[in-house]
Amino acid sequence: MIRVFVVDDHAVVREGLKSIISENPGMTVSGEAADGNQALQMLGQAECDVVLLDITMPNKSGLDVLKQLHSETPRLPVLVLSMHPENQFAVRVLKRGASGYMTKESAPVELVGAIKKVLAGGRYVSPSLAEKLATYLSADGQKPPQEKLSDREFQVLRLIASGKIVSEIAKELSLSVKTISTYRSRILEKMGMKNNAELMHYAMQHQLVE
């Protein structure tokens, strides 16, 4: 029996994933969590064979959870499910140790096969994403501007784009206002932009925020 742990902050999404998994006689949901902190706490004790992980969550982002899980339990396969387009997030999560990346739209059809593939030691990406990754890895591949950002800079970019001011971001990430301002300056420089309005426009245009 394949034991799956589901991490997503939307109850309706968790129920949908559990329904798909329960329809397969060889799989069961061994646990679920509604945010990153809860996931890490529960996964320290839960018995599971694969983790389904959302990227956009309160308290601790999916990227932070992925990074910690990969550090502490590198052999535990983590399949990232996200509402964001695969070309915007997939490269980042695969580089951070994810075993696969799937959009939530494709989950009803592809989830069971993807779980079996990552459990067998493979990596799951859609055919269209595999093509994009080949282009990305080629010498002359055009990388999107956000790929120049560190994970923390990327996180700050998304918070700025969601309309939060520097002091709110500092509080949410438990960092100083000065540190967030420094991150903001680096983001603007790396992405060749002048102000928050340009960052917000870019993030919405490329579906980096909900």
CATH arch. level architecture of the largest domain:
3-Layer(aba) Sandwich
Structural class: alpha/beta
Report the radius of gyration as a whole number of Å: 17 Å
- Low-pLDDT parts are none
Helical content band? 40-55%
| Number of helical segments with 4 or more residues | 10
* Sequence of strands across the biggest β-sheet: 2-1-3-4-5
CATH topology of the largest domain: the name is Rossmann fold
The CATH class of the largest domain turns out to be Alpha Beta
What does this entry look like structurally?
The protein has two domains: 2-137, Rossmann fold, CATH 3.40.50; 145-205, Orthogonal Bundle (Arc Repressor Mutant, subunit A), CATH 1.10.10. The protein is 52% helix and 12% strand. The protein is built from ten helices and five strands; from the N terminus they run βαβαβαβαβαααααα. The chain has 210 residues and is an alpha/beta fold. α2 runs parallel beside α3 (62-72) and α7 packs across α10 (196-205). A five-stranded parallel β-sheet has the order 2-1-3-4-5, sandwiched between helices.
List the helices and strands and how they pair.
Elements: E1 2-7, H1 11-22, E2 27-33, H2 36-43, E3 50-53, H3 62-72, E4 78-82, H4 86-95, E5 100-103, H5 107-119, H6 127-137, H7 151-161, H8 166-173, H9 177-191, H10 196-205
Parallel strand pairs: 1-2, 1-3, 3-4, 4-5
Can you give me a brief rundown of this structure?
Helices cover 52% and strands 12% of the residues. It has helices at 11-22, 36-43, 62-72, 86-95, 107-119, 127-137, 151-161, 166-173, 177-191, 196-205, and strands at 2-7, 27-33, 50-53, 78-82, 100-103.
